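Exercise 7b. Backbone tokens:
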């Protein structure tokens, strides 16, 4: 009887230790999941709020979240097809509008001044990423530069210029900027960014998207402009995760002892 009781006691201790380990592991896993799940913050698809099967109409109102889209550097804009020239990644085929920009600076002037600007606060989010689809016409600039702002007024370059390396009259879908290393854009109500035309590298002028064309009054279309990020963990979540991790380490050490 004593032996049986002893064996039952040992078995119960092991079961309790395994249960604690499972709970600790689940706590840490839940914490990691909360930290790594990217969320859609704001997205512009430029489609009409009420579908009208007309790609020449559209809106600058964000389809998800809240934010503003505006022109900089003297550019002008209309709405045009997001389906043409291979199409953007917008699934709304037939009612897929894109923001169509034109009126660019003259050759050799206005480097990094003209393009599109988007503003949307990132309050409650970190590890910010921006993606968008962009169509270059044959005669627009071959290169564009991404810039970001932490105060909504002053913009700085980030990364190398994007190149229409396969020529114009086509879409370049899924252009992406990862700002997770820029702490200043995290949890920031004044976050904004621009995509602007820029001179060809190591030069003082624009190159046309298609080499056989001449830079001039071309167009660029934007679609599926998206801001994503991870939710900033609540202090209670962080504390719970740390406690769970410490408990898991202690359990493992006790099992080895």
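Sequence design result:
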């Amino acid at each position: 009887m004593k032996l049986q009781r002893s064996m039952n006691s040992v078995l119960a201790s092991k079961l309790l230790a395994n249960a604690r380990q499972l709970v600790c592991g689940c706590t840490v896993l839940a914490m990691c999941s909360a930290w790594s799940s990217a969320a859609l913050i704001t997205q512009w698809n430029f489609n009409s709020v009420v579908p009208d099967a007309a790609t020449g109409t559209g809106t600058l109102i964000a389809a998800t979240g809240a934010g503003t889209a505006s022109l900089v550097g003297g550019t002008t804009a209309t709405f045009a097809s997001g389906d043409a020239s291979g199409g953007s990644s917008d699934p709304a085929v037939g009612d897929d509008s894109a923001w169509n920009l034109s009126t660019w600076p003259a050759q050799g002037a206005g480097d990094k001044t003209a393009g599109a600007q988007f503003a949307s606060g990132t309050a409650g989010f970190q590890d910010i990423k921006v993606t968008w689809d962009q169509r270059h016409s044959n005669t627009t600039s071959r290169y564009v530069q991404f810039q970001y702002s932490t105060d909504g007024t002053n913009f700085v370059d980030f990364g190398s210029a994007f190149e229409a390396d396969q020529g114009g009259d086509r879409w370049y879908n899924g252009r992406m900027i990862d700002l997770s290393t820029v702490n200043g854009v995290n949890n920031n109500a004044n976050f904004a960014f621009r995509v602007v035309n820029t001179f060809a590298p190591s030069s003082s002028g624009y190159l046309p998207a298609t080499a056989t064309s001449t830079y001039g009054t071309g167009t660029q279309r934007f679609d599926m402009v998206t801001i994503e990020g991870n939710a900033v963990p609540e202090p209670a979540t962080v504390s719970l995760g740390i406690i769970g991790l410490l408990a898991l380490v202690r359990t493992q050490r006790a099992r080895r002892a």
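Instructor comment: Residues 2-36 form the longest helix (35 residues). Confidence is low (pLDDT under 50) at residues 22-35, 236-249.
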